[in-house]
Amino acid sequence: MGLLDFLHKKKNTAETAKNRLQIIIAQERSSRGGPDYLPLMQRELLEVIKKYVNIDADAVKVDLVRDGANDVLDISVALPDEK
């Protein structure tokens, strides 16, 4: 039974690898359709906000959301708590 268990584990590993690859492909396909200016816009927004508030690079998120026939630019800025 030990040999059969070993073969069964490979199937689970292969299935896990397949699922992970499908997730990566889906992410690549979704990012391909997005405009090229979003990363640049995110960096520029971060630079402007840093002039007034000390934040890190992960604090600014810029996404393009499709809402039916419209594209909506979603900008999220996590500001630090004032002390």
From TrEMBL:
Keyword Cell division: yes
Signal peptide residue numbers: none
Pfam families: MinE
An example Gene Ontology biological process: regulation of division septum assembly
Gene Ontology MF annotations: identical protein binding
Sorted UniProt keywords: Cell cycle, Cell division
Family, similarity comment: Belongs to the MinE family.
Primary role: Prevents the cell division inhibition by proteins MinC and MinD at internal division sites while permitting inhibition at polar sites. This ensures cell division at the proper site by restricting the formation of a division septum at the midpoint of the long axis of the cell.
Protein name: Cell division topological specificity factor
Natural source organism: Stenotrophomonas koreensis
